[in-house]
């Protein structure tokens, strides 16, 4: 619908006014949304999923994302657009979110799911199509409307993605304004206004955006940076571990926050595991090649944009590696100590994999913890082992939300068909990462719950029941 021409003497609307109009339209859409009806809500969620899962849409958006951002590769983004969406839809269609969502008569409780309101979804350049759809599906599952703030680098892709979502909503008879886009040009001021005015803001990507969301005064969910270290234990199946590490590391050229950034190999099996990684497609850098990688990976304290998320041959060329390295899949640099920011211990967002040699399992745990102190605390750790006691030890002793055992991190950390983590593109790291959630972002974060409470038979133990053991041990 065309808009009336603006008088040229009028001032352009402010960021505050633009966002206020979007929020008002979102609230109006929620009024028209049949969000009291779980069936209709699920149809809306399915419409959003189909808008990106549809094969020609998945490819088109993948191609546009690579052209738009220069990050990742088309085949991986097609998989991401479809796999993440399919898994998220599976999870959402199995959940009740509106009306009565739970009845527990033995506790005298009935729970009702209700919307949180208009959601602001700040999305990253690494996933300019998949993340907006993922968040929109969760938001609409809770009966809400969503306004998406794209990364400036991925704005064209995100804009097209929103157009497809709105068209599919209209086809299914739902208000298009349930999904809106922050208009260009994207700016910090406009994104901040969105954070300030919505009912809930959910941020993935820039840690600066996460901090600003937390300081906005709006209820906020942010997720932390990744920098995943993975241990190869003495009992690991080395070829299986290497194949999974390779598949995960090279997926979308390491754009994922769940991509392995470091591998820690126990001393007794170091060369055996390194040989397996080389068989899987890794290039083992010499000392001089390592220096060249170091000098080219960071330029003036920032990751080199000519290396970030680029194909292996382009990465090898940019790092000054020999011709033979260009046919490999990823590049291993062996490191003896944990540096700080802009060292090989930091997140690299590239096909560079740091390898550490641990004296024993205790040393491997120490190295993993030290890496996470540089970047990624709270996020994730992996281990390849046949000894589940070692996996349990890592889980008990390491300040992370997720510990993946014998899995390709990129394909398991954000939910998998062979694990029970919810499918998502946004992974909380708990207070260790400065986040309000210590789990994968999921539909539960997009609903309020009303508790209907009725009486039950009295459940009041005696003083002896509660204090008796204490009195016996320490006296009354």
UniProtKB/TrEMBL annotation:
It is an enzyme of class 1 (oxidoreductase). GO terms for molecular function: oxidoreductase activity. Residues 23-278 form the Aldehyde dehydrogenase domain. Its EC number is 1.2.1.81. The keyword Oxidoreductase applies. InterPro entries: Ald_DH/histidinol_DH (IPR016161), Ald_DH_C (IPR016163), Ald_DH_N (IPR016162), Aldehyde_DH_dom (IPR015590). Keywords: Oxidoreductase. PANTHER family: ALDEHYDE DEHYDROGENASE-RELATED. NCBIfam families: AcylSulfactDhSauS. This is Sulfoacetaldehyde dehydrogenase.
